[in-house]
């Protein structure tokens, strides 16, 4: 039966907000009104701007590619939908990582694809090209990964990605890489779109820049495929909101300033999370070295019960690992203000102590 919804996304959007949101997976919101900006900047004339060239070129500069490889989309989720829609037909196979970000495989299943999985094994959840090779068949049309890995934050290096690209080329497939967390990697990494025409990359200004409200997402693909995706997008949304495009262009003009404090914030918060996990005998998790999220294993008890306890008694949240295919784990985000992350960890510790 065709998948018609994302269980995780519905769950995430219908939860009551909490103060200590360890379930969040992005840096603090950026307020664009701190920059010189008036209504006139938004060109609210009712017109759209076809494939708005200034924004397309700004994304290209940010990624280090040519503008003919850029397709704009409403956030990374829509970018994933467009990329997969362009690459898949009913009955095709998708080889996806596990643990996996559920909306990505739900999208592939919605498009009629058959899902095969390869394991990213604990403790570090690295990608093993040999495991990918075992899952790939002649019917594989897409190999689907996140980098940094959602939910664990693991970084797949270029050698690993090249090996996966070689596997894809062997069977005529593409590698779709969701890179929405990549700009939180330590040290900084370049996009896998630069590794060859088999790579199709999606990303946005959401997770690493705190700009979820303007829905500035994109796809990077070789020019002929990018053109196919542009044409496909005309079936979905025709064009993006031009006011949002203008705001995104303002963001790119000030992106260095927007991101300036985030590296130090994440370094502090990762250190807090690492110290917290190290102090617990009821959690198992490799130390965070980059990224915004971690994926601890709860050694005793039920993760959903822990989440309910956190919400009801401690005004705190986590994301149960069942949404990623690992019910004994939970995703923990450390992108919030340091006082919120520190307070959330204290409350998580108190909740864990009550279920021992």
From TrEMBL:
Keywords: Aminotransferase, Transferase
MF annotations from Gene Ontology: pyridoxal phosphate binding; transaminase activity
InterPro entries referenced in this protein's UniProt entry, alphabetically: Aminotransferase_I/II_large (IPR004839), PyrdxlP-dep_Trfase (IPR015424), PyrdxlP-dep_Trfase_major (IPR015421), PyrdxlP-dep_Trfase_small (IPR015422)
Stretches assigned to the Aminotransferase class I/classII large domain: 49-347
Superkingdom per UniProt: Bacteria
Pfam families: Aminotran_1_2
PANTHER family found in the cross-reference section: AMINOTRANSFERASE FUNCTION, HYPOTHETICAL (EUROFUNG) (PTHR43510)
Protein name: Aminotransferase class I/II-fold pyridoxal phosphate-dependent enzyme
Taxonomic lineage of the native organism: Bacteria, Pseudomonadati, Pseudomonadota, Alphaproteobacteria, Sphingomonadales
């Amino acid at each position: 039966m065709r998948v018609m919804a994302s269980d995780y996304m519905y769950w995430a959007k219908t939860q009551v907000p909490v103060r200590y949101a360890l379930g969040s997976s992005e840096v603090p919101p950026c307020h664009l009104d701190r920059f010189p900006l008036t209504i006139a900047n938004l060109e609210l004339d009712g017109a759209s701007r076809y494939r708005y060239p200034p924004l397309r070129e700004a994304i290209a500069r940010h990624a280090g590619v040519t503008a003919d490889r850029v397709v704009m989309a409403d956030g990374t989720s829509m970018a994933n939908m467009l990329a997969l829609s362009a690459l898949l037909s009913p009955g095709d196979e998708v080889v996806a990582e596990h643990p996996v970000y559920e909306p990505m495989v739900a999208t592939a299943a919605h498009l009629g694809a058959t899902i095969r999985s390869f394991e990213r094994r604990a403790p570090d959840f690295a990608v093993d090209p040999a495991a990918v090779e075992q899952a790939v068949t002649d019917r594989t049309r897409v190999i689907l990964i996140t980098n940094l890995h959602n939910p664990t934050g693991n970084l797949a290096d270029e050698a690993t990605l090249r090996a996966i690209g070689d596997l894809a080329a062997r069977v005529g497939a593409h590698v779709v890489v969701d890179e929405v967390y990549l700009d939180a990697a330590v040290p900084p990494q370049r996009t896998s779109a630069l590794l060859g025409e088999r790579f199709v990359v999606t990303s946005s200004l959401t997770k690493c820049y705190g700009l979820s409200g303007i829905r500035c997402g994109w796809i990077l693909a070789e020019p002929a495929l990018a053109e196919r995706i542009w044409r496909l997008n005309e079936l979905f949304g025709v064009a993006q909101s031009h006011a949002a495009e203008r705001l995104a262009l303002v963001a790119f003009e000030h992106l260095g300033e927007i991101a300036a404090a985030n590296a130090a914030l994440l370094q502090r918060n990762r250190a807090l999370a690492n110290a917290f996990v190290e102090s617990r005998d009821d959690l198992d998790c490799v130390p965070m070295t980059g990224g915004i999220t971690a994926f601890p294993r709860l050694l005793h008890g039920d993760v959903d019960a822990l989440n309910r306890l956190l919400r009801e008694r401690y005004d705190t949240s986590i994301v149960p690992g069942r949404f990623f295919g690992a019910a004994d784990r939970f995703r923990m985000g450390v992108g919030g203000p340091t006082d919120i992350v520190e307070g959330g960890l204290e409350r998580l510790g108190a909740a864990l102590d009550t279920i021992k």
